[in-house]
Predict the structure.
Amino acid sequence: MDDLYLDSILDRYKHPLFSGWIEVVPENYSLDIKQAHNVSCGDKFEVTLLRKDNIVVDAKWRGEGCAISTASTDLFCEWAIGKTTEQLHGFDQKQIQELTGIESITPAREKCLYLPISLKA
Amino acid sequence: MFDPQEVRKGFPILSISHSSGKPLVYLDSAATSQKPEVVIDAISNYYKTSNANVHRGIHYLGDKSTRAWHDSRSTIATFFGAEPEELIMVRNTTEALNLVAYNLEEKIGQGDLILATQMEHHSNLVPWQELAKRTKATLGLIPVTEEGMLDLDWLEEKIRREGDNIKILALAHVSNTLGTVNPISKIKNLFKKLPFIVVDGAQAAPHMSVNFHALGVDFYAVSAHKMLGPMGVGGLFVKKEILKTMKPWLFGGGMIDEVEEGSATFSEDLEDKFTAGTPDVAGAVGWAAACQYLSALHMNDVFTHDEELIRYTLDKLTAIPEITVVGPMKNRSGSVSFLYKGIHSHDVAQILDSEGIAVRSGHHCTMPLHHAMHWVATTRVSFNVYTTKADIDTLVVALEKVKKVFHG
């Protein structure tokens, strides 16, 4: 299970690249706020997605969770930038596995790893 | 006094290895206890030698099974200082508490007050929330102090102001998160006129001698699986005079007197009245074996063993700067929960698992308590008779690894 805490995951968790909150929305841009909770874990994340012409141009998150859900959310933000809304809807478990490098996870931690899936809609 | 190292030998599962090849250290007994071989054998033997449906079969196995059912009920009730007919067999503590909530429905109404506590397991909270909704009664929660005790000053004031309206008091004997042992007698003495007192005994029963009559409460709910017995069987002890007036809540075979096409009358026998359908006889047999096993260890020694483990764990964990133990420093039982600075409890648990150690992480079904205390989640280590100080030492070493992984 040490495999879960890959250096890349721990690094993302300790030094996330997309933590923050987008507040300024320039003209012709739109801002979406998405939320994802794992009530049973106490994980709680919110993401701001800034779009122009249906394309995500910036993404930032705030919230609190375990190392896995935090790293996964940060990687989601990175991935989302440059994607259309339609592409965003295609975000799935397989995509998360590719982004995180975690190919299998125990049932108890699935909710942590796959938390960003509920941020896409 | 028993030697927990010797006790361990009687629990087959404790000798298996973790997937990493490391020895298994099971510190999640408050979620469910492991089972001694005598309990496993009792269940297995019942099916091998006595299985038949109870009461109705006028044949050799039917008699044997019925006797096993009655003997088991008697052993369990005696273990809890109750009469066999005061015991309603259910699936678990949750079902027992729901049973009480449904049965008290006709005794309360608008303007009445149901009191539970902020430290309750969801199983002793949500049934009361639902009852309050159905009856338009009000649900109040006794707050928990910073130290992790029930705020009895608050309760005293509540009784002074609204004592006449308090119809039900529902509380845990031992908190599954804080470990707090609630002073039931002291709390009872605060009331001039006693409400129905409903106690969740799930976390007390494995660690201390519980005498239902001496405790003097109306309802006491327990689960077999927390106290070395099997999953899927539990009990509700009900004061006899209340039981006599209680209506059955499950209807069907076994609990009836006479059935006609349009209606039925119900058994006057208190045991039959609340045993609808085929009971879990093997579960009862296993639970009785667990009671006998604990009695042979002596519950006073079981209590002392738990006290020593608590003290040892508190000493070890409070010496770690990153750790904040939650709950009181005395009068606690069964478990120690803690916060690890800057690390989510799921991450703590995952690293501990990689060292072969099983702990609980999350909110332990006490979300309102976690919210009130502003804890995202906690990590809980919990004990039973097979837990040793060496287990705690292994935990302490593994916590060093948690630090290394996350803080470098």
Summary: The interface with chain A takes residues 20, 343-347, 350-351, 353-354, 362-363, 367, 370, 375-377, 405-406 of chain B (CB under 8 Å). Chain B is about 40% helix and 15% strand. The two ends of chain B are 43 Å apart (CA to CA).
